[in-house]
Structure formats: C-alpha cells, structure tokens
Specification:
Layout lengths: L13 E2 L5 H9 L1 E8 L11 H11 L4 E6 L7 H11 L7 E5 L9 H17 L3 E5 L7 H5 L5 H13 L2 E3 L1 H11 L4 H4 L8 H20 L24 E3 L5 E3 L3 E4 L8 E5 L5 E8 L2 E7 L5 E6 L5 E2 L13 E8 L5 E10 L11 E8 L1
Parallel strand pairs: 2-3, 2-4, 4-5, 5-6
Antiparallel strand pairs: 1-6, 7-17, 8-11, 9-10, 10-17, 11-16, 12-15, 12-17, 13-14, 13-16
Length: 368
C-alpha cells in the first residue's frame, strides 16, 4: 500500500478511530490490565517508552490498580508476536494492548507480514479488548518521511487500522518533528540510529500519552460491538494459529522435556545435544511454525512433512547473539493442503564456522 506524498508537516502523528471503550470501563471498575508487544524498542526496560506510559496511567488514575504484561522481545516481528500473544497477553486478560512491529517487520515481504499482523490484530480484537498501534523509527524510513511519504511498513499497518477501527500513534514522526524543531538532538533520540535513548523514549511515550489524554477525555463510545470483526483483508491470516502441546511430540534419541528459568518468555523446551536425534508429531492445519531458544551454540536440523523429501534449515546467527537465549520464530510451512499432516525433524550439526554447537531447544509448536 503506497500513500501519496504530502508535506512532512501535514503527516499525522495521531489517528483516533473507534476509541478505548474497554479501557474506560476497566478504569471505572478500578483495575486496568495493559499489554505491550513488539521488539526491543518496546521490551521491558525503564529506558523504553512503556515505562512512562504505564506510570502516566498510575498517576492519572490513582484509584485504579494498573497491571502490565510486557511481551515484547528484541529482534522479533509480528510472526513471533502472533504465535505468542495467546499465552502472553490474551490469557492474562489484558484490556488494552499496544502493538509495535512497524520497524522489525520492515524488511519482510508484504504478504508474509500481512498474514501475521492481521492474525495478531484479529486475535486481540476478538477478545473485545482495545488495541493501539505504535509506529517507531528506523533509519531506512528517513528519506521517505522527509519526502512526505508514509513508509510501506507503516502504510500497511494503517490499512489494517482503518479496516478495524484501531487507533494509532506514529511516535517516530513525533520524535523526528522534535528534532526538526530543535527540542531534541538526533543523538539524544537515536544514539545507534535505531534504539532511542532515554530522551527519545520519553518522546515516544509523550506522543502516546497525548493520544491517551484525548481518547480518555472525549465522550465515551459504545462497547456493544467489541469483539465483532469485519471480513479479513488477508485471506491466509494467522488468527487461527494455536499451540500444539509439547507432550504430543514423539522422540527418538536422548531428548529431555525441561522447565526453563534463564530465558524470558520461554517456559519449557524439548532439549537435546545429539546430532541424529529425531522428533515427530501429527497435526491438522495448513501450516506449521516453531519458536526456539536459539543462539550460536544451536544445532541446525532437517525436516520433512508427510514423508516427503528432507529439507535442511540454515538460520542466521547475528554477531551479537549469545550461545542461547534468543527467542526465535521459524515458519516451516504456511500453504499446505488444509487437513492432517505428519512432521519429522532430525538434529544436525550445521558444519560451518558460525554453527559452533549441537544444542537444540524447541520451545513452541504452532499450527497455522
């Protein structure tokens, strides 16, 4: 989706749509549960924008108990978010969730990110909760924004926002305008050209607080239609994505199903250190996705579906990654014939310099 350019001063930072009726209701009852999901710009840290936003709620509504659930993970996109949102946001009864994936989805193909984004939004909205989209900034967006254009990653989110009546805050535009006005230096905003410093995070939070102040002071809207969703824009969206219990797996070789304490957002893994170890399971659906506890010590694997040919997996290992502790999604298939299927995988070393271990830690199996 490409929107026509206009002067940068006419680009809109805040867009109010359906309103925050569920949030108002929760505050009136004295208990608001807030979710945050996105990448490293949003993950739990007092340097990041969710901290001033949550504290604004606590200060502004002192009679209400404010509870937060931060499900954001660095270097993850909306695919990871959609696969984890049931367990980390929905099952914890959040009434308001902020979604931030315009940056980490930036390099993913439109069709791929459209499926996971719309699935994520539909999962959240189907519960009746309020959702706010948050658009941050990466350097590759600068030229388009200065030319008065909306970067494609944001424009596609805005198409979903219009379709579902979801409010949005372009915090990256707000911060850029602060730099252009001389209220903040570029180095204060983005010391590494991506992750905001404390001043930049405050700028992001300030824009969201301005959105909330107007939303929550306007006349209350109707909540009777919350949870009623329009027809989807993306045919193969991921709303139906769901977890397969790890206990449904059959193993060959030395695997251990173990509780995990050292990696945030992961509760349990199937673990082996043995090349040649296999696991298999049956599933019914059109696709399959995994989440791994991943790092430089991780093995690779090969897999096959319905006893077809074996497919080897070769995954990127960033220089900054540790031996494990990265929560990484991997999409195995998304357009199988709907119905029953069988999956098999075998652990292999990888046999290359950056693949320095044989550890496999499978944390989640999701059926699409």
């Amino acid at each position: 989706m490409k929107l026509p350019p206009q002067p940068i001063d006419q680009l809109q930072t805040i867009r109010h749509r359906r309103g925050l009726a569920r949030t108002r209701q929760a505050l009136a009852r004295g208990h608001l549960h807030i979710g945050f999901i996105g990448g490293s710009i949003t993950e739990e840290c007092r340097e990041n924008w969710p901290w001033p936003v949550a504290n604004w709620f606590a200060e502004t509504f002192p009679k209400a108990t404010i509870v937060t659930e931060n499900a954001a993970i660095g270097a993850t996109g909306s695919d990871s978010g959609c696969l984890r949102v049931d367990r980390e946001i929905i099952q914890r009864d959040c009434q308001l969730t902020f979604v931030e994936y315009a940056v980490n989805d930036y390099e993913r193909p439109t069709e791929r990110r459209s499926r996971s984004r719309e699935g994520l939004l539909r999962k959240l909205l189907a519960t009746g909760q309020d959702v706010v989209l948050v658009y941050t900034f990466r350097q590759e967006m600068y030229a388009a924004m200065m030319a008065g254009e909306v970067p494609a990653s944001i424009a596609e989110f805005e198409q979903l926002a219009e379709h579902y009546g979801v409010g949005s805050v372009w915090v990256g535009l707000h911060a850029l305008n602060e730099v252009r006005a001389g209220r903040m230096t570029w180095a204060q905003w983005l010391p590494d050209a991506l992750h905001p410093g404390s001043r930049g995070s405050w700028s992001y939070g300030e824009a969201i607080i301005a959105f909330l102040q107007k939303e929550l002071s306007a006349p209350a809207g109707d909540i009777s239609d919350t949870g009623c969703l329009p027809e989807a824009l993306t045919a193969l969206h991921w709303q139906s994505a769901h977890e397969l219990p790890l206990t449904r797996v059959r193993t060959q070789g030395p695997w251990i199903l173990k509780r995990v304490h050292e990696t945030n957002h992961i509760e349990q893994v199937w673990e082996t250190h043995v090349p040649g170890a296999r696991l298999e399971f049956d599933f019914t659906g059109r696709g399959l996705a995994f989440i791994f506890d991943y790092g430089k010590k991780s093995a690779e694997f090969r897999y096959r579906i319905d006893q077809g040919p074996w497919t080897p997996v070769v995954r990127e290992r960033p220089d900054w990654s540790g031996p494990r502790g990265m929560v990484r999604a991997l999409i195995i298939a998304d357009e199988l014939p709907p119905g029953p299927h069988g999956f098999e995988m075998e652990v292999i070393h990888g046999d290359r310099e950056e693949c320095s271990g044989t550890e496999c830690r499978l944390a989640q199996i999701s059926i699409l």
